[in-house]
Amino acid sequence: MAGVLLGQVVPSDGALIKLLENIDKCSKLPRWTSTPFDIIVLDEFQDCNPETFWLVECFVRANNLRKGGQPARIVVLGDERQSI
Fold first, then answer.
1. Which residue range is the domain that position 50 belongs to?
2. Model-wide pTM > 0.90
3. Mean pLDDT value across residues 9-16
4. Cβ–Cβ under 8 Å, residues 51 and 16
5. Which of 9, 31, 40, 59 has the most Cβ atoms closer than 10 angstroms to its Cβ?
């Protein structure tokens, strides 16, 4: 997801955090160049942390803008009995 949204491979959570430190969370969305998705599936959502949630939110918003404002369907999968 980060690779599609940010245009580069993000190999770890630490690398994601460094990228987020350089991006103002209130600024405009990164430029979307890929084909937008009609359905977005978020698996293992029980493991989502604030940085990942911010990335998901930006991804969904950028995808929807690329689709002309038409929202994608979002499927969220998680196990409330499992968490890291």
1. 36-84
2. no
3. 85
4. yes
5. 59
